[in-house]
Design goal:
CATH architecture: 2-Layer Sandwich
Structural class: alpha+beta
CATH topology: Ribosomal Protein S5, domain 2
Number of strands: 4
Strand order of the largest sheet: 1-2-4-3
InterPro entries: Ribosomal_Su5_D2-typ_SF (IPR020568), Ribsml_uS5_D2-typ_fold_subgr (IPR014721), RNase_P (IPR000100)
CATH class: Alpha Beta
Oligomer: single chain
Protein name: Ribonuclease P protein component
Keywords: Endonuclease, Hydrolase, Nuclease, RNA-binding, tRNA processing
GO biological process, one term: tRNA 5'-leader removal
Order of helices and strands: HEEEHEHH
Radius of gyration: 19 Å
EC number: 3.1.26.5
Number of domains: 1
Strand content: 15-25%
Length: about 140
């Protein structure tokens, strides 16, 4: 995956947080059985060398586990966490297997609550329930 829109769409899917990473899975529903993988590691984790090393480790993990345990027709996104680079590779392998197992047992589209307002943004007067009820004819 390379488009930002795909990563944002995956963020609305199912998630399985682990100590070394967060796994996001979203079924595309486009009829294509291909599994896609996306990897992201932020600058908070470290410099370019550290981030690229972590991404290489995630690519190897994905190649090893996704064909057998991934969801066909879904986008899988691995988000690196701060402790992920120091974790043993065998431990990351076990955690990814566990995360994929957790994802498989969850419902396909869990209902999420309404989006939270952004920090620093105030609700408009017309957005309040009282204002909406007074607008009805």
């Amino acid at each position: 995956m390379s488009r930002r829109a795909d990563f944002l769409a995956a963020n609305r899917g199912r998630r399985a947080p682990m100590p070394g990473f967060v796994l996001l899975v979203r079924e595309r529903g486009d009829g294509d059985p291909a599994m896609r993988i996306g990897i992201t590691v932020t600058k908070k984790i470290g410099g370019a060398v550290i981030r690229n090393r972590m991404k290489r480790r995630f690519r190897v993990l994905a190649r090893a586990l996704l064909p057998a345990h991934g969801i066909a027709g879904a986008d899988h996104v691995l988000i690196g966490r701060e402790g992920g680079i120091e974790r043993d590779f065998a431990l990351l392998h076990a955690e990814l297997g566990k995360a994929l197992g957790k994802i498989m047992t969850r419902p396909i589209d869990p209902q999420r609550g309404p989006p939270r307002p952004r920090k620093g943004k105030t609700a408009r007067k017309s957005d309040t329930p009282a204002a909406r009820s007074s607008e009805q004819p």
